[in-house]
């Protein structure tokens, strides 16, 4: 008898002492989670480039009562504003009673194939476009699959045209032909990073030659003629363009239970979408800000990345319109940021790259990562003990299921987010986002449960 008694006492004590690591599926509202994911999948299908996401964000924010900040002469509690930066970067805010900022920052760019300045050539009776990949990709994943062409071209005559071919049911697609196994003996000896070399990522775009013996590049001629007939494009215009080749397939459910989403670009559009939905339900205690950045995948550089002055510019506008005397330094130093980005999920096929006791697992909730980077914690922000406590308590109070871990084994590699750039301003920052299988591959997989926890987490933060 006494033995059994002490066992149940220890069991109780264990409940208190141990962290619970388990799937959240059983305890949460499945219908709500699935409904959210349907909206999310529609968003992913419609928006495959950073410009498309920003256009979507603008329309979404307007629908939710946000107005361009240029329409305001003063700002008061409850006002909802946004600002667009060069079509690739948006900031949105709900003005709170306190000036203290609660910021969620995500990025809208994803790895893909961009075009070289002079992309078009012909060889062996086909026309091809030369690409230059953007971000950290495994190049071999982009051959032998259907690609769609998305982008914008500014024409010599001053017009700007959007191109979008390959996603709709009867659209043609574009393909990078791989080498047949029969002749791959030498290729298979290459280092995997060069299995497909950068210069081998040429994309098939045409085949029928013009019927004219005086024209030297007959297939290229027909491709340019097509682009000119349909979009008014001449070859020179391709220099003033941003054309991206992205996976042509649209998002799908995975598995018999349909509980996972497979889609291109979920890093980091999953957080971008969750952030947008969350700020549309933000309260007015603190001042909520959503930042959607471009260029994260190539180091957050340039005029639309997290290192640009856009955040300061937007916050400075808010401060002035509130007639506040607070400096940006004062404001940032008391403000809180969730760097909303994805992390790696434990992959059963590659368990060895993870520390299984310190990794994220699909379905265990949104991941809070104290730091990223690689071995030795270089190139990252390391969130403070106090701020970690705040976020964990906030999620606990609001029934947001969370987990924590590291990206992977210490010496194997690493990755960065925008966290360190916002932390450098003086804000408290931590990374919070769902974990992903196959990150940066043409098809990334995320748990619908974790997506919903990310949304719930950002929402609770915007309401605190
Ligand atoms: Mn990311
Ligand atoms: Mn990434």
Can you give a write-up of this model?
The protein has a nine-stranded mixed β-sheet, with helices on both faces. A six-stranded antiparallel β-sheet has the order 8-7-10-5-6-9. Strands 11-12-20-19-15 form a five-stranded mixed β-sheet. It is built from ten helices and 20 strands. By secondary structure, it is α/β, with parallel strands linked by helices. The longest helix is centred in the N-terminal third of the chain and has 17 residues. The mean pLDDT is 96. The chain folds into two domains: 291 residues, Zn peptidases (Aminopeptidase, 3-Layer(aba) Sandwich); 136 residues, Roll (Aminopeptidase i, Domain 2), CATH 2.30.250. Strand 11 and strand 12 form a beta hairpin. Helix 5 packs across helix 10. The structure holds manganese (II) ion (2 copies). The site of one manganese (II) ion has 3 residues, from loops.
Q: What key phrases describe this protein's structure?
A:
464 residues, alpha/beta, Aminopeptidase, Aminopeptidase i, Domain 2, 2 domains, nine-stranded mixed β-sheet, six-stranded antiparallel β-sheet, 10 helices, 20 strands, 27% helix, globular, binds manganese (II) ion
